[in-house]
Design a protein that fits this description.
The chain is mainly alpha-helical and about 200 residues long. About 55% of the residues lie in helices and about 0% in strands. The chain is globular and about 60 Å long.
């Protein structure tokens, strides 16, 4: 029963944050350049892992990448400012586990890990609906996050931070700062197929 309660709490804190003015101001305060960014809560190696995962989850296409919108900086500040001490320790431990998976050779540096290694990690551990988390099946009572749970939490944090970013809200999604009349019609016709900003 303790495991179930812990997982519920982790899900609430890690994956689904309420969009409040405090969270939005936290997101907008992340303005440093990704090349000079030094994590406040995470270690340097954990920051490198986060940057690479975020850019694979949300790569640059017609829209900016996650790192262009400072998503890793936001996640670092979010973990530090919002997570309780237990969840912070679980995330740190999960990051350490990911680093050990990526650095099979003890002399490997995080800067030398290829994008292919990160993609392989995500392909192996990201669960799709109906998949079974083998780590959880082997140890159902463990309070530690499995690799799959951790990567899914990172994915959720990346997506939430990305869609609440001002750049995405005003320039990528359909945005009307002063909503007027409501219209019924085809989304393609009303907004050019774009979803409405929050």
């Amino acid at each position: 029963m303790k495991r179930r309660t812990a997982l519920k709490k982790m899900g609430l804190t890690a994956g689904f944050f309420a969009i409040t003015p405090t969270i939005i101001s936290l997101l907008q305060s992340c303005k440093s350049d990704i090349k000079t960014w030094i994590p406040e809560f995470l270690s340097i190696d954990q920051g490198i892992v986060l940057i690479n995962l975020a850019d694979i989850i949300l790569p640059k296409t017609a829209t900016p990448s996650a790192t262009e919108l400072n998503v890793p900086q936001f996640i670092d500040k979010y973990i530090m400012d919002v997570f309780n001490d237990d969840d912070q320790l679980k995330f740190k431990s999960a990051f350490t586990n990911i680093i050990s998976i990526l650095t099979t050779n003890k002399e490997s540096r995080m800067e030398d890990i290829s994008q292919e290694a990160y993609k392989t990690l995500l392909d192996k551990y990201m669960l799709v609906k109906g998949d079974i988390d083998e780590e959880r099946e082997m140890n159902p009572e463990s309070l530690k996050m499995t690799t799959s749970e951790f990567l899914n939490s990172i994915k959720n944090l990346c997506i939430k931070a990305y869609i609440t970013n001002e750049e995405i809200g005003e320039n990528v999604l359909a945005y009307d700062p002063i909503p007027g009349a409501y219209y019924c019609g085809d989304l393609q016709e009303l907004t050019g197929g774009r979803s409405w900003s929050l």
